[in-house]
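Instructor's aside before we start: the two examples that follow are unrelated to each other. I chose them only because their records fit on one page, so don't look for a connection. First example below.
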Amino acid sequence: MQEMEAKYEEAEKKIKDIIKNNELKKDHIFLTRLARIRLYYLTLWKHINFLDNKMDKQSLKKIQIIVFFQCFSQELYKERYPNMLLEYNLKFVVIALIHFNFWGWEKEEGILLEFIKNNISSNILNTNDDNKHVWFLLELYLKFKNETILGVNENLNLKVKENLINNDMKANMIPNDLEIYEKVFKNLKAENIDGLINGMIIYHSEMLKNLGEYGEFRDYVYGFYPIEILYLIHIRKKLGLSVPEKFDDFLMNTPEAKMEFKEKELYPEMDELVEEIDKFYRRNYPEYIPNKHGELFK
């Protein structure tokens, strides 16, 4: 945690220097500094959840907000620096979208969905992603909200893969088969899918055994956070369908899995540095998407 605090302070100094001098030729540095700020809150979230055994919703909220601003900051450099490495990925963006829906943040949810739709095959959203649960989450969201991407809300992974190939972009990582998640889609509105939910738990838990190696659920960011299962349960509750009453396994009893959200979650206090970056972009770039939407996360 001390190391992350030191990196946060380093980012703070750089950000404030650029803002003070209004250095437009250096403002792309904000992209890497936003990533450091996100990592700081991720570390804080893990620290509080596991070491203090508390449920830290505030840090989790700030992580999702930072991802939102990473997306729209990156968009400003879409043409100026077309080959710039991204400091976020499809998984982070989809998980932010899912949380906004969880928390009832409709305004920001709609803006982020448009970003995904508009950039599904662009240089600022790498959709060549092999995480099956990410494709499951995004398609599940589209079905629930009666939305589409590329005109579909079914077999989304295959449609995006086709679209990337047609645009001469890499698509080799996108899975052809979502396995357990395809079975869930086929039975999404069945009266009882406890067995399928258990199958999702088993799949996630098996992947988690090789934590730290490359692969699905094997990173320390969301490995212990079964967001794909929690969101499915959330949707089934909304639809008035049955869900398991309790879980006895390890995965569904982690501090992350036990977090409870209200129908309409309050916005957290905005991180000062993120707020200053947002103000800088609003002042200097009329085309900056948040300028079109007034106050956000308020």
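Example two begins here.
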Amino acid sequence: MPSTISQKRRRRAIVRIILVGAILGFVYSSFSDGYQVLYPHINTIIIGILVGGLISYLEFYVFTKRGRRLKFLYLVGIRTALYIAFITVIVFLVLLVSRMIRQDMGFKEVLVSEEFQYYIFQQDFNVAIVYTVVFAFIINFSILMSRKIGKDVMWGMITGKYYKPKEIERVFMFLSVRHSDQIANKVLGLDFHRFIKDFFHDITEPILEHRGSIYEYVDDLVVVSWTPREGVPNANCIRTFYEAKKRIWENREHYYHTYGFVPKLAAGYHIGNVIQGELGEIKSPVVYFGDVMNTTSRIQGQCELLEQELILSAHLKNRLGLPPIYEPASCGEIKLKGKKEPMELYVIKEKPLTDLYAL
């Protein structure tokens, strides 16, 4: 089975983390032991690789699945305890095995030897642990911040990319739950918040898999953007919607048993130029200004009026190379609120499997 975009991105991230671990391990031994002896460098590089692998496993396969519903304080405490425990064991075992090999001694012999006891309790063992834990903390912090504000936004703000506003072209998708007003009247208070949280959680992975960047959440609406290079080829932005729809359907039993219904999606798409830059003195979010934002919102509003799940502008439709799986149908020219001239809109539907087999 071919790898998904998300799996490929995850593997690249794991390789980068392990590589950074190996480099930082070499840097530590270079400062602490110099270059006269080889084995300290081998030890620290192995420690860096193992700690990088540990971070990758916990961050991408454990905390993402099991930590979602934990309170932040509990999650921080569990993560801190696990990292300190595992890193201590890794450093201890690597140093122990290294001495067993170099000195041709058994496990117990090295463990009780004066030289090893002296290193553990009076030399640099504690320093190595602190250095490694700090490295793990920095990687963790980067991953958490990347998840909170987006990888591209985080590095863009660090490097000052957004400090000076500039005009760029973006594909936008406004995606929400259909008939959300009726749902809000049926699912009240905290239950509605849990529903929206579940909904956003389920659609996030398909968005990231197809290289979308989540711009903001507004009530039950999520605004997603792509560069034309990432969103247009092979109708990648459209695939995001149908993959999100599929993910909701896969979790239909949870939604029905928990909330009494399975949510339906409504999405509007458009492409155009916007001004991108930081705004404000306190939170300084990266914002988009431009008529394309208002137009995309109006297009998404047509989903309720026309009883359709996906509508996009003719301008974007003409830029997309739609695969055979998708079938466009014109809605005609429609006068959108706030627009002087009517705009031609299209509905995009996914063809049934029976139609595809006949191609």
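The two ends are 23 Å apart (CA to CA).
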